[in-house]
Design a protein that fits this description.
This protein has 176 residues and is of the alpha+beta class. The chain contains 6 helices and 5 strands; from the N terminus they run βααββαααββα. Strands 1-2-3-5-4 form a 5-stranded antiparallel beta sheet. The longest helix is centred in the first third of the chain and has 20 residues. The protein is globular.
Length: 176
C-alpha cells in the first residue's frame, strides 16, 4: 500500500510532512488507524523540530495490508542533551528516554510532553511494538513490557520505530 523512504534536510521537514500526509490520506485504513498514523508521524516531526537541533531526518514508512512500520530518526542532540539544556538532569540516556516516554517535556520541567507518551499508549492499544534509541540507550516496549538495551557505539539523535498490525480501534478513547 505505502512504501516511503527518504532522507531530508531539516529545513524541508514541514513540506515533507505535507507530502507524507498526501500519500497516506489516499489509502484506506480501518477506523481510527489513519488517525494513529497521522498523529504519530506529526508528533515525531514536532519533536524533531522543537528539540533536536538536527540537520538531517530519515523517514521510512512501510504499510501493507496487514502491518505498519514507521521509522523516523534524526542526527540531532538526543534526548539526554535536550533535557540537560533545560536544566533537567537524567543520569543517563536510559533515564532520558524514560522521561520522554512518561511525558516529561524538554521545554520546561513543569510542562507535560504528550507526544511520545501518547504514541506509546496508542501502540500498546494496538498491541504493537515501540523502539526508542538515543545516545547509548535503546528501549523496546512490547506486550506491556519494557526492555532496555545498551547500544555499543551509541546513536546520535533520536530514532523511533513503531510496528503494529493494522486494525480498527477508537483512537480518541485510546488517547484519553
Amino acid at each position: 500500500m505505502i512504501k516511503y523512504e527518504k532522507k531530508i534536510n531539516f529545513q524541508n521537514i514541514d513540506q515533507e510532512l505535507i507530502n507524507i500526509f498526501k500519500k497516506i490520506e489516499s489509502s484506506k485504513f480501518p477506523k481510527g488507524f489513519l488517525d494513529f498514523i497521522n498523529y504519530s508521524v506529526s508528533e515525531l516531526f514536532v519533536n524533531i523540530k522543537e528539540h533536536s537541533k538536527a540537520e538531517i531526518v530519515w523517514i521510512k514508512i512501510d504499510i501493507n495490508m496487514k502491518n505498519c512500520f514507521i521509522e523516523i530518526s534524526d542526527n540531532g542532540i538526543g534526548l539526554r542533551k535536550s533535557y540537560l539544556l533545560k536544566k533537567i538532569y537524567p543520569k543517563d540516556d536510559f533515564v532520558a528516554i524514560e522521561f520522554a516516554l512518561s511525558g516529561l517535556s524538554t521545554k520546561d520541567s513543569q510542562e507535560r510532553g504528550f507526544g511520545l507518551y501518547s504514541i506509546k499508549k496508542l501502540v500498546s492499544v494496538l498491541k504493537g511494538e515501540m523502539i526508542v534509541e538515543s545516545g547509548l540507550a535503546k528501549i523496546i516496549i512490547k506486550d506491556n513490557q519494557t526492555i532496555s538495551q545498551k547500544i555499543p557505539k551509541g546513536f546520535q539523535g533520536v530514532k523511533t520505530i513503531l510496528k503494529t498490525s493494522i486494525k480498527a480501534f477508537d483512537f480518541y478513547k485510546a488517547v484519553e
